[in-house]
């Protein structure tokens, strides 16, 4: 069961009453599947499993208020274990896409997708190899530096795309490399780390 009151309280705050129980049930199922699979392949650091609700699930769920239109297309770049994309899909984002180049991780993502009936689209490829689609939101957690993410997704973003990125203590160094002529940059405090920020980028 969920053992972190902060996560459950946050889900309660952002979720319509009639959906809360189902969302928390799906998060618990995902948690069980992730911990089980992590014993075979490295999805998340083993030392983080003791605080998985806070370190991984709340960290991902805190993006939900910034995704103002849950019906828009969303791409989670370098999703790994499915974070933050799976949590966002569970919490109500309707058109979630995951991209992960490692086949074994994609097999896990497909099992979660099927088990939880999330209807996500999963790309087993490098993000640079996605050619035919454009996405309204691009999210990422522990994938690459901001400028690298922008470059890697240049063919699948459009003028109204928003980048919502979970970044650690190097966030200021990374945003210094972003053109202020091209992008609006907003900073939001992280709920899970005083050293981290959520960075929102939008094209000017």
Task: Please provide a written account of the structure.
The protein is α/β, with parallel strands linked by helices and 204 residues long. The chain has a single domain (5-203), classed as Vaccinia Virus protein VP39 (Rossmann fold, 3-Layer(aba) Sandwich). It is 35% helix and 19% strand. The chain contains seven helices and seven strands. It has helices at residues 5-14, 20-38, 52-61, 85-91, 103-116, 146-152, 171-175; strands at 73-77, 95-99, 121-123, 137-141, 162-167, 183-189, 197-203. α1 runs parallel beside α3 (52-61).
CATH class descriptor:
Alpha Beta
Structural class, from secondary structure content?
alpha/beta
Order of SSEs: HHHEHEHEEHEHEE
Tally of contiguous helical segments:
7
Q: State the helical fraction.
A: 25-40%
- Give the low-pLDDT segments: none
What is the gyration radius calculated from CA atoms? 16 Å
Strand order of the biggest β-sheet:
3-2-1-4-5-7-6
Mean pLDDT: 94
Q: How far from one another are the termini?
A: 44 Å
Identify the CATH architecture.
3-Layer(aba) Sandwich
Under CATH, the topology is which? Answer: Rossmann fold
| Major sheet | 7 strands, mixed
What name goes with the CATH superfamily? Vaccinia Virus protein VP39
Secondary structure tally: strands? 7
Number of domains: 1
The coarse silhouette is: globular
Beta-strand percentage range: 15-25%
Short description:
With 204 residues, the protein is α/β, with parallel strands linked by helices.
Give short descriptive properties of this protein.
204 residues; alpha/beta; Rossmann fold; 7 helices; 7 strands; 35% helix
